[in-house]
Design brief:
Length: 132
């Protein structure tokens, strides 16, 4: 699509709240507000609104919207990611998009896709983007 950057991140806040969807059963639902800090090609912070489903202690999947504020390769502004993931086995991956029309400031016009991975080196957001 365009420029691909790998952006390390850390989760700096985790605020869970219960979510009741119908009768209690084997699937537990939850809502979490979480916060992240980014380094590398993107320096800044984000706030994430995430809804998840879990079976027992294991998360099964999630959907989220994430407001990022920061500087991407020298350009400052905000943008929103929409992403989701399914946890199934040893290779959990999540992916999504930059929501069109959400970027502000010097990042106005930002479009792209995102993949979130976690490995031995930590958490990484890979952003494939175009600007303009």
């Amino acid at each position: 699509m365009g420029t691909v950057v790998r952006i390390p991140f850390e989760v700096t806040g985790w605020e869970p709240e219960p979510l009741a969807l119908g009768e209690p059963g084997p699937v537990a639902f939850g809502r979490v507000t979480l916060r992240k800090t980014f380094s590398g090609p993107l320096t800044g912070t984000s706030v994430v609104a995430m809804t998840s489903a879990a079976v027992g202690e294991a998360p099964a999947g999630y959907v989220a919207v994430e407001l990022i504020e920061g500087t991407l390769e020298g350009r400052s502004g905000t943008f929103v990611l929409q992403h989701s993931g399914v946890v199934d086995g040893a290779d959990p991956r999540a992916g999504g998009v930059v929501l069109p029309g959400t970027a502000t400031g010097e990042l106005a016009g930002l479009r792209g896709t995102v993949e979130l991975t976690h490995d031995e080196s930590g958490a990484v957001l890979t952003l494939d983007y175009t600007l303009g």
